[in-house]
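Run log // design_07
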């Protein structure tokens, strides 16, 4: 059976006999055991370990309205340790401006990416959105991708699909980031304040990427992607209340799942911590699989996860990356593998890790994870 078929079978809940293993390496990982310098070599490394790899394909980004003019410049405020990069968007509805601290680890040169990421969220000096009046201007920065960009990205993905077909592995596309999207240009603290001070405007922010997400689902189908991902790690109760989740997130997620299924594509929800009060809600959303969690660094154990999702949704999780793979020896990771393989033995499950495997952790612990897994499936 091909690697991707093993994962798809687990996702569909068609077999719980032989649990598949699918873990993922951080881009910074280097080990003498395996060549991880190219995508093909990395895929071969996963397969030689006995893991089921997943290849992430690129998706088109939202585009600026053609009437938007952009200006970028730097200033050096007296009370700031680092220079500030400003990016102005002159839209037909008015000005939007974002400021970022240009710290030594700033990876974007003299620019602020659109859309942003965790780095832009943490380096915020001036949020792009200051009040409710700014929210409607965002539509000029969040246009559907053009046919030209769609074809450009298709060409960039060609090698990925060649490798996926050659080795029979799963392809995946991230179609949405949820509340991580506005957080990237407002910052976490500002977004939480905004959710209370500007409730109606915050709801618009929660839905701002919807049209682009639905377009990406259609594009992913056209590209030939096997699995869709919807990130949700920053819309859990670390930042927002269960009531806010109900008001601003739940209906949108249900619509996203429905849209994916319209194209016969399985879709999963990526969570991290702060999900325990939301478990019953998440099970009702219709996702084919829920991935991530963190049984060691949250109050949500693998048993809690099992009890919430048993016979409802496939779960892809198990071993805490920072706590087990980052441990001083392999005993903790081996114990974690044994425990979660037992806990999830009676329900659709993919053994995984909670976060990417990093270079500063001993790779021997990863090898121990794989070894213990193989002992248990013999």
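design_07 sequence
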């Amino acid at each position: 059976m091909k690697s991707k078929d093993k994962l798809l079978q687990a996702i569909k809940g068609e077999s719980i006999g032989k649990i598949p293993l699918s873990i993922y390496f951080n881009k910074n990982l280097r080990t003498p055991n395996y060549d991880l310098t190219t995508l093909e070599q990395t895929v071969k490394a996963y397969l030689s370990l006995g893991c089921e790899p997943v290849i992430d394909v690129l998706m088109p980004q939202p585009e600026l309205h053609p009437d938007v003019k952009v200006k970028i410049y730097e200033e050096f405020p007296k009370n700031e340790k680092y220079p500030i990069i400003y990016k102005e968007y002159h839209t037909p509805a008015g000005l939007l401006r974002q400021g970022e601290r240009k710290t030594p680890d700033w990876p974007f040169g003299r620019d602020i990416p659109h859309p942003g990421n965790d780095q832009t969220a943490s380096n915020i000096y001036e949020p792009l959105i200051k009040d409710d009046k700014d929210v409607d201007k965002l539509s000029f920065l969040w246009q559907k991708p053009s046919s030209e960009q769609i074809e450009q990205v298709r060409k960039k993905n060609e090698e990925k699909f060649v490798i996926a077909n050659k080795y029979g592995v799963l392809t995946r596309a991230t179609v949405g980031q949820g509340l991580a999207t506005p957080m990237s240009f407002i910052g976490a603290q500002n977004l939480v304040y905004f959710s209370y001070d500007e409730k109606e405007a915050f709801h618009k922010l929660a839905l701002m990427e919807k049209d682009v997400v639905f377009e990406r689902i259609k594009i992913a189908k056209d590209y030939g992607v096997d699995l869709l991902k919807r990130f949700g790690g920053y819309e859990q109760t670390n930042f927002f209340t269960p009531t806010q989740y109900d008001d601003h997130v739940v209906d949108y997620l249900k619509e996203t799942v429905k849209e994916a299924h319209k194209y016969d594509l399985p879709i999963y929800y990526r969570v991290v911590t702060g999900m325990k009060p939301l478990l019953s809600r998440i099970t009702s959303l219709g996702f084919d699989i829920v991935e991530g969690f963190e049984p060691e660094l949250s109050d949500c154990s693998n048993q809690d996860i099992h009890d919430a999702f048993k016979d409802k949704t496939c779960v892809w999780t198990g071993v805490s990356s920072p706590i087990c793979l980052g441990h001083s020896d392999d005993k903790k990771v081996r114990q974690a593998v044994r425990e979660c393989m037992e806990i999830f033995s009676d329900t659709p499950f993919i053994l995984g890790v909670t976060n990417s495997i990093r270079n500063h952790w001993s790779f021997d612990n990863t090898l121990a994870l794989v070894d213990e897994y193989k002992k248990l499936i013999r």
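The chain has 15 helices and eleven strands.
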